[in-house]
Queue: 4 jobs
Job 1
Amino acid sequence: MPDTQKGNEQGALVGVISATGAILVVGLGLVFVFVLSVVSLGTVPDTQKSTVITAAFTVIGTVVGTYFGVRAGSAGKERVEAARDLEAMKVQELAAQVDAPAAQEAMDRATKRVVAERSASLPDLPTL
């Protein structure tokens, strides 16, 4: 089996284990909140039962919202990293086709642009 295919399979396995672990932790947390709520409803006076229910729904909403928020952010990060890697490959291929003097001139221009941009937008960053 080629190394890249083996690495992809290992990465997929780690992703499945990670997702399963996250779902398990969230599920156990929700079960724990449910059990605490049921026990609390049996022990608190009738005037405070709505407080227990409200607290339970708040915790459940927070946990579920956080879980899906982290998942969405993680997916967005993966898409951005994949796009960045693709652009880096394009730049490397283009740089391989350029002669040395033109490449040095382009690097000098890029360095000047970066220095000017950093000094204009974020003066507290160190210059190159």
Job 2
Amino acid sequence: MRSGGAGPVLRGEHRALARGGLCSLAVADSPRYRCTTCGNLTRFDVTATVKTRAFHHYSVGGELSIEESEVLSSVVDEVECRWCGPSGSVEELTVTPPA
């Protein structure tokens, strides 16, 4: 996105957020899910609220580059099965680390 009406120029992980993906901000600590209705283990719509602190660096021309970003908090608001939708029942799986 460009400044001057369409919004700032976003770089790296923030560009992925602008495109609609959650990217690597919360992926590393994300749990596994399972739909108890259909058995789905791979496709879920996850709605989350993420609070970040970021260093915004503007060029002389006004373009924004986000050079540092820190996740302050992340809360999963809702998880829906992509196959069953709202009628599905999703549970968080407990992952046991390998011995």
Job 3
Amino acid sequence: MDKEGGLFFKRCLCCAILSSLVMFAAGCAHTKSKQTVLPKENPESSPAISMVSAGFGKITGVLIDNETKEPLPGAVVAILGTKLNAIIDLDGEYSIAGVPADTYTVQAKMAGYETQNILRVSAIKDSITPVNFGLKPIGVEKIKKQNIYLYPTKKETLTVQLHPIGSIGKSIPEYITGHTVIPVFKGKKFIPENKKGWNVIIASGGRINDTYDCLFCEATLFFNFILDAGWVLQSSDFDRKMNEILLNIGLNDKERADFMDYWPKRMDWKKKYCVAYYLKREEMDKAAPLTISKKPESLLRLFFKFVPTDTLVTVPEPMIEKFQRNGFTVVEWGGILD
């Protein structure tokens, strides 16, 4: 290539390079311009921001016994439809913070009391909504002379526990509430145990701790029993008819004798009649569950509620299959006098 041709080639190459650089710069400028004009995210439509804008409120209040007006520590207040709840303190107060602004049903619950719902409670942003409760006690029943007879097939060491919706009062032998330490020797080693209930040694014939024929206690229950079947009794035939009822249900001579030694003396015959309502087994299992460290093969839980009346009422007699004793047998009876 001559000198003049080489010069021409260099000029063309320089022009091409310059043109490319201009196009690249223009492209960069266009890209930068596009980035700066992208619309920003709308704060009102942002999920995180909308939660903040919705805001939170607080629901607080007190919870008391509707009759005594005393606080009920341990009761639970919950906002239905959420996981928010609070436990009533010793002063009967509660507070639930962080409640999203909305309208709710607030519920209060405690064992032994009717559940209470308060509807259309509004949680308002940055505000406190007062919601107070007065819970009504469920019917209070006093079980008298609750006897538990245990008949293992061989000598047994057992723990017997009652779990009443309420409390256990007088007991023989003493019912351990969970605060007493029981000394237990395993081999030569002393191991303290804290077993709630009756911890007893029972002979095959049913003798307890070489002293007692049965376990005994009295209990207070917060439970509404359904009274829809029983027997209408009068003073003149109470002993005969009651003994016949117990025999037909399946109590043995000792159990019937103990029952009849206690109840006739405590009946109030100021009224002409007394209805001995039969308390259903499934209701007793809810009101005062009974657990034994060794499961019995046969279990009878027999309870009555005696209701005096001047009116001769018509009550259907319950259909009760006679109790059959097989293997390790447990018999329990008791009564409530209205």
Job 4
Amino acid sequence: MTNSSTIDVPDDPIAALRKRSRILDRLLDEEGRVARWPKRRAQKLIVLEHLAQHFEPGVRLAEAEVNELLNSLHAFSDAALLRRWLVEEGFVSRTSSGSAYWLESMEAPS
């Protein structure tokens, strides 16, 4: 789901996967949870893609369910920050009221 125009990755797909893997290795803890929120947007997008992979396409989740899912995937206790970024960057959609969230597909957001 990486978009090389959005995320600064090499054109070579193998090099891009290696770079993504190195970034996730630095940002995930031993349990595979996001240990800290990166400062660089390119790294944030890689983390958001990683988080979005835990949503089931087409399944609507209530905000509390999204919080529970995200809390199991990160270690810095800020599910609201992750929800906002997932929506703002187009990884996850939500109703205008914020009562439901869903992943439409695993295509790269534009």
